[in-house]
Amino acid sequence: MSLTNEQITATIQELNANLVKSGLTKEQIAQDLKTNIEKINRILSLSQHSLEDPWILKEYLDEKIKEQGDVPIPFSALSGDYHKHWFLNSKKIDKKQLSKGKF
């Protein structure tokens, strides 16, 4: 599934706003998700090619924000139950298993 240019822009803004709201550093996120800051930056800019990676980061940030007793900023395109989106591997998202390699 492809996003429109407007959806891409909105999703980038929503991911970054939730990053700020979480209070976490990219280093903490990279460590928790067993990756590096480069990959986190690619996901935040939607230049990572895996469809699941932005969903994994979204779910991770949502969880961390809720753990702090706060409410995440809603996502306009990354919405609904990802288990019901045929184009996503929900098992990877459930396991927080980011794609291997650079892209």
Automatic annotation (TrEMBL):
InterPro entries named among the record's database cross-references: DUF2316
Pfam families: DUF2316
Domain of life (superkingdom): Bacteria
Record protein name field: DUF2316 family protein
Organism of origin: Listeria fleischmannii 1991
Lineage: Bacteria, Bacillati, Bacillota, Bacilli, Bacillales
